Amino acid sequence: MADTGTLECITEHERILQEIESTDTACVGPTLRSIYDDQPNAHKRFMEKLDARIRNHDREIEKMCNFHHQGFVDAITELLKVRTDAEKLMGQVTDTNRRLQEAGRDVTAQTQEVICCRIQQRNMATTVEKLQLCIPVLEMYSKLKEQLESKRYYAALKTMEQLEKVYIPRVGQYRFCQIMAENLPRLREEIKEISMSDLKDFLESIRKHSDKVGEAAMRQAQLHRNFNSVVVKQASSGHFAKPVYSLNGRTHTHNGLKMEDDAGEDDEVDDEVLTVQDLVDFSPVYRCLHIYTVLGDRETFENYYRKQRKKQARLVLQPQANMHETVEGYRRYFNQIVGFFVVEDHILHATYGLVTRAFTDELWNMALSKIIAVLRTHSSYCEDPDLVLELKNLIVIFADTLQDYGFPVNRLFDLLFEVRDQYNETLLKKWALVFREIFELDNYSPIPVETEEEYRLVVSRFPFHDAEIEKQDFPKKLPMSQSVPQIYTQVKEFIYASLKFSESLHRSSTEIDDMLRKSTNLLLTRTLSCCLQNLIKKPHIGLTELVQIIINTTHLEQACRYLEEFITNITNVSPETVHTTRLYGLSTFKDARHAAEGEIYTKLNQKIDEFIQLADYEWGMAESDGRASGYLMDLINFLRSTFQVFTHLPGKVAQTACMSACKHLSTSLMQMLLDSELKQVSMGAIQQFNLDVIQCELFASSEPVPGFQGDTLQLAFIDLRQLLDLFMVWDWSTYLADYGQPTSKYLRVNPATALALLEKMKDSSKKNNIFSQFRKNDRDKQKLIETVVKQLRSLVNGMSS
């Protein structure tokens, strides 16, 4: 069995060696791997087999080399013999070639000379013939170069056309003609680029100088507006105007008056006409348009021009951030816009199609919307009425200038109404400060006049007429304080300031009258009214000042009709005209007067409260002091002196103030008596309180303010009087028997009030009379109090149910 395995192993190794010898080296790996997968130590036997095979091949190679060695040596010996013969042959061939070249050199030279002469003759004849055809082409091309150098682009385009259609086709086969033909489109493009560059320079130039064009146009419109009235006057006297200036051929006139030039000097105006061409050179536009038209590319040029002008329009319409700070900012803004549209108007009428009316209208509509938005925004920042007024004048000149060129400007005049509202707002703010300063500096005392001149001076500033005061001797006093004529004068100044805005708005007298009245109403009803209301509410304004404020508002109210007459004299519009706005000053001063009256009532009550706080009753006293309390006498003296100041007030105001004070005093005393913190009240305290109420009644009966009928003022204390009488007389049987009847003696005594006070006295009796139960009278009185308390409670419960 071992021999059999060895034999199989040898056979397998033979097969593997054959595969290694016959197959590619890339496949050797799997073959060799199979050796290691067989029996153990098989690779050693394979190596032995492989070494034997290598030695066998080496022996075969050695045999083959030995067999061919002698033939190789013989071949090398023969090659060495042939090389010597080849070198000899090469030397003979070279010598033969040299002798042949030397023999034919002269013949070759003579033949070449003959050929060259004939070629030259033929070339000269052909050259002369072709030059006669090429010279005109070269001359035309040279002419083209000269035209380009001299910037005669239109002539250059005509020369190019002749070259292309006439001259170049004759000699088109030549290279230089092909180069010329190839250069002509490039030259056309260069001409287009040069003309377009000139156009761009023109656009840049007018963008920088449009403000000068606009300034000239607006100055002319300003002169036209300023001299228009003079023209009318002189025309009526037989004088005729002469043309002075023109922009775009539109002549305006004035009457030989002087104009102010840039240097600020007045020179007499000649008949010289100023045109837009004097300010702007339009030749680049005309030239570029003509060139593009000749080149058949007019539409491209038109589109480019319009596109660039739209971009410039947007740039022109962009305002500076601080434009609203000075009038110069607005003026530069308007000058640029006017200059832009003056140039477009000239292009419209001079180029026949480069821009159309529809295009300019589109630009204007876009610009107008932007202008209105810009002005609406920036005017809202203006706090100075003088600046707003100058802005209005600029807008009017701006609108008049563009209207002369056919642009619709109605929306600008509509905007002026919004600016007018802004102007009025700034005026109202300014006059609010003026009014506030007047009120702060006023001494709130009647105006003293020492002489007739002082009296006339006051009357000239304020329409005051009083026959009684006029009869008085000097020195005398006018009832109003110094703020009244100042306020009246400032209202007139406001009307003048408001009127300034209405000038040159092309509005009728009726509309101007309506504007003035409405703005004056705003001044009276809002600004002046607010200042008065704030003044009245100030803590340092006392009763004397409030009285003077009421007197002042009365006189200002009476002066309102003179303000109406003042406005009528300015506008020449009758107040009887239909839809004429009336002044609402009456309501303003009435409201202020009512507020002052209310403040008087409030301050009087506050002062009464201050005195009431000084009250110091001894509620448990056995007997009264026999005289009224000191605090109450001080309060009555204060009220007497205060009501003496009210002599200049209207009767109803003084009476209302007096009645309000007495009612408030009565209420305060009642509240003091019924205070929940007050637990006990003795009869002596009731008697002392009664003495104080008697003083109040005496004060009311003394008629501190004239005009009260009978005991009207005393009725303010009727509740206290009936309550105190009920307790002083101890008339409970009458009260209970007559309760609810209109003829009751104690009709104003409420059961709840009587019950509250009676319980305070009941507690006081218990505390002060410890041994009252041992005295029959005291016991009877205590029983009576308890009985009355029960009956009063039943009445109170009946009222609540």
UniProtKB/TrEMBL annotation:
Gene3D superfamilies: Dsl1p vesicle tethering complex, Tip20p subunit, domain D (1.20.58.670), Exocyst complex subunit Sec15 C-terminal domain, N-terminal subdomain (1.10.357.30). Belongs to the SEC15 family. Keywords: Exocytosis, Transport. The keyword Transport applies. PANTHER family: EXOCYST COMPLEX COMPONENT 6, SEC15. Residues 412-760 form the Exocyst complex subunit EXOC6/Sec15 C-terminal domain. Residues 49-218 form the Exocyst complex component EXOC6/Sec15 N-terminal domain. This is Exocyst complex component. The lineage of its organism: Eukaryota, Metazoa, Chordata, Craniata, Vertebrata. Coiled coil: none annotated. Pfam families: EXOC6_Sec15_N (PF20651), Sec15_C (PF04091). GO terms for biological process: Golgi to plasma membrane transport; intracellular protein transport; vesicle tethering involved in exocytosis.
